[in-house]
Amino acid sequence: MTPSPHFAGRFAPSPSGDMHIGNLRTALLAWIWARRSGRDFVLRVEDIDRVQEGAAERQLEDLKTLGLDWDGDALFQSTRHDAHVDAINRLKDHGLLFECYCSRKDIREAASAPHVLPGTYPGTCRHLSDADRARERERLAKNGRSPALRLDPKVDEWTIRDALFGEISEPIDYVVLQRGDGTIAYNLVVVVDDDFQGVDQVVRADDLLTSAPTQAYIAHELGIAQPSYVHVPLVVNEGGDRLAKRDGAVTLRELLDGGWTVEDVVGAIAGSLGFEARTAAELLEVFDPAAMNRDQWVFQPPQF
């Protein structure tokens, strides 16, 4: 069934620098999935953290150069602060947040305990007494700090459905939703802003798959419909690590400056997915999700 025109897919880059070919591949796939399903395609610049001057403008130019178009103007996340604060207050009113007084060192040490899953926060501050909380607030205040706010879920796990991975159930982590400096964190703002932009289809790299159930649970608690998910294969370097600019000539501008054409870039991306195409429009035409190569793409930067 073709969705209503206000439904959308999206791409949401962080303007911390120029996008590399892995980012461009994900953007291209998000655009294809939206266009092939009759959805709008929207952009959101996630500029509330780690912003490099001029990066957002270069990223939008690179997407146009690649052959992508989008509906409406790009949304800058920094303009949405009031909506993010409102969401924090709603979760607080529903008893879904708790204060966390831990330092990064405290968290590292707690997360390394034998009974704790790697990368998760064990809930150290979740069940403190009122007296303990008052004492911890005073301790932080003496050092000019404030507590962070973490999600206090009412369920142990949540399930999402992904077009490539099927049903995925994960424990709900006690993620930080507001940092001690007042910054509203990614796991909340991504949910609030997807809803604002009418996004009901989230296409992104599969390193974010395990965070999707927590975000879907947050959406549920805010009364937001859970989107459909498509977590696409990550692009990695020869060592198997997520591709980064330090790996060599990996940004669109570096590749073009080195002698590649836009057609070469799109052709390489298309080939990594198992298709032959030289433009975004051609790839849109031949793309078939069922035939897509689902392996990670090991990208070897050309030596110019």
What does this structure look like?
- Helix 6 packs across helix 7 (212-221).
- The protein starts with 7 loop residues before the first strand and ends in a 6-residue tail after the last strand.
- The chain has helices spanning 21-36, 55-66, 81-93, 104-111, 130-142, 186-196, 212-221, 252-257, 262-273, 280-286; strands at residues 8-11, 40-45, 75-76, 97-100, 148-151, 157-162, 166-171, 176-178, 199-205, 228-232, 235-236, 297-298.
- The model is unreliable at 1-5 (pLDDT under 50).
- Helix 2 (55-66) links the parallel strand 2 and strand 3.
- It is globular and about 65 Å long.
- A five-stranded parallel β-sheet has the order 3-2-1-9-10, sandwiched between helices. A three-stranded antiparallel β-sheet has the order 4-5-8.
- With 304 residues, the chain is of the alpha/beta class.
Distance between the termini: 47 Å
Strand order of the largest sheet: 3-2-1-9-10
What is the 3D shape?
A: globular
What is the strand tally? 12
For the biggest sheet, the summary is: 5 strands, parallel
Mean of pLDDT:
92
Structural class comes to alpha/beta
User: Cα-atom Rg, whole angstroms?
Assistant: 21 Å
**How do the SSEs run, as a string of H and E?**
EHEHEHEHHEEEEHEHEEHHHE
- How many helices? The count is 10
Helix content: 25-40%
